[in-house]
Design a protein that fits this description.
162 residues, mainly alpha, 72% helix, membrane
Length: 162
Amino acid sequence: MNQSWWFSPGETTWAISVRLSLAGVFIPEGLQKLTHADILGAGRFAKIGIPWPELFGPFVGVIEMLAGIMFLIGYASRAAAVPIIVIMIVAIISTKIPILLGRSWWIFSLRDLNRYGFLSFTHETRTDWAMLMSAIFMLLSGSGRWSLDARAWRPKFSQQNA
């Protein structure tokens, strides 16, 4: 894979709808991890069992905000998708696997819910799953035709086709 693939807008016309969904989730969530660190950032990470919560809480918040902004404007969405995919996988492993098992697992603690097991796991994971699949879509498809990437690449595509 050459480096230019990361900035290629791809051919998907309606990627903008996925980009807006991702931006609408990750910009405010990242901001809240920084502004409400005790309940959504480092404090929550400590409660879950994430190591070094004082480091990872703000780090994840900043990454989510930056990636969300990149999705919003359609700049390097493929590259922005990579840390979001990692964040979503860690979120599922750290917060949803204990729900599936009905007990704390590895270093991650179980939060108090009315029920546990497979159906509770699928219910609690629905947003994480949607964001994970959307980020994978962005990685594979690119920002689409309505993006900064497309504006930057338009002259290159027209020169190659001439």
